[in-house]
């Protein structure tokens, strides 16, 4: 009973983190088209949250095609995979306990 509740809580927290980071990625992608003030604190926070992940992906996969950077799309696809596979796996395992 305790392990089931723990696993359900972990899955829900993981889902929340994935959801929040998905929105950070989307906001960062929209901001990249607008060219906001780089000294704005919100822009700096979004940049600091997204750029390390983008750099990691760019190290292994060429993401720029025709002047567009597809790193945010790759990250979003990875997050969706984690949500659909890992979180669902934990939820189903917890429900069988």
Automatic annotation (TrEMBL):
Pfam families tied to this protein: CCB3_YggT
Cellular component per GO? Answer: membrane
InterPro entries per record: CCB3/YggT
Membrane as a keyword? yes
Query: Which PANTHER family does the record associate with it?
Result: PROTEIN COFACTOR ASSEMBLY OF COMPLEX C SUBUNIT B CCB3, CHLOROPLASTIC-RELATED (PTHR33219:SF14), YLMG HOMOLOG PROTEIN 2, CHLOROPLASTIC (PTHR33219)
Q: Which family does it belong to?
A: Belongs to the YggT family.
* Name listed for the protein in its UniProt record: Yggt family protein
Q: Which organism is it from?
A: Campylobacter geochelonis
Task: Please spell out the taxonomic lineage of the organism that makes this protein.
Answer: Bacteria, Pseudomonadati, Campylobacterota, Epsilonproteobacteria, Campylobacterales
């Amino acid at each position: 009973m305790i392990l089931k509740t723990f696993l359900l809580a972990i899955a829900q927290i993981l889902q929340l983190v994935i959801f929040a980071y998905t929105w950070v990625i989307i906001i960062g992608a929209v901001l990249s088209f607008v060219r906001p003030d780089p000294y704005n604190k919100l822009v700096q926070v979004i940049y600091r949250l997204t750029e390390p992940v983008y750099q990691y992906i760019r190290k292994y996969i060429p993401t720029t095609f025709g002047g567009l950077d597809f790193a945010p799309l790759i990250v979003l696809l990875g997050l969706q995979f984690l949500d659909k596979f890992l979180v669902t796996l934990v939820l189903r395992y917890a429900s069988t306990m």
